[in-house]
């Protein structure tokens, strides 16, 4: 996170999405996902607005992506992993095991600057390949992990973007080409040909677990306890997770409205709803969209915020504010 002293956390809820069937009893499918589609194309937005918030600018240079933030969690991890020496600071530079104190942050500052910008070249390249705005991807990493690409807390949320089982499920379900590539490295190709939804529960759990560990750059034998190569490679995976969330969000909107997202919302607000889906899960997304529909309101961010009032969803608006600040 960018300014708080608390470690970054993620809550990717696994609550199911209610999909209303057609009159014939089948479930409507809006999204035919392809790795060639950008989020704009998935939503049916054929032309981006000329002016967007900085975080949604489609392209920036590596230099423009540079930041210089005093990340207290990242500083703590650098001290704990002996990348930074802070023994002369009070309490060895730590106010809690996962939060540095002011002295610890100052000792770590040169390394903090290098660390929070070390993935910028990969972010810029991946943004060009996928259409995910580079500042959005970097800001998501900042809030989720403060650029520490290992495990946090209970170990269920891992990597730069804090991927968990629910996020892995979204990626494997909404990106069939990605699923095929991953599945063929874990299961027999005959099983993979069946598709993700037709695998057994145990096979799906195996794939999700394997995917989550693929973005885990923790390495006891590496300098600083991090496999930098694996961390850099994970940037593209997190961009694919975001695109999969764009697709899942589009599907949820279609399930409720039977219309494409672009017909009932706008480019900026669709990004905000997609990030709610990433952060709080499809259950929160579906409830918010259903609430707006029931109230007869336009699917705007202001109307959606009112539909995020349940305990498991109400932190979503604050998350969006931090992404877009």
Broad structural category? mainly alpha
Mean pLDDT: 89
Computed over alpha carbons, the radius of gyration is 20 Å
- What's the tally of helices? 15
Order of helices and strands: HHEEHHHEEHHHHHHHHHH
Share of helical residues: 40-55%
The number of strands is 4
Any descriptors?
325 residues, mainly alpha, two-stranded antiparallel ribbon, 4 strands, 3% strand, globular
Describe this structure in words.
The protein has 325 residues and is mainly alpha-helical. It is built from 15 helices and four strands. The protein has helices at residues 39-43, 72-80, 102-117, 120-130, 134-145, 165-174, 176-186, 189-192, 201-214, 228-257, 261-264, 267-280, 282-294, 301-306, 316-324; strands at 94-96, 99-100, 151-152, 157-158. The strands form two sheets. A two-stranded antiparallel ribbon has the order 1-2. Strand 3 and strand 4 (157-158) form a beta hairpin. Helix 2 (72-80) crosses helix 3 (102-117), helix 4 packs parallel to helix 10 and helix 6 (165-174) crosses helix 10 (228-257). The radius of gyration is 20 Å and the shape is globular. It starts with 38 loop residues before the first helix and ends with a helix.
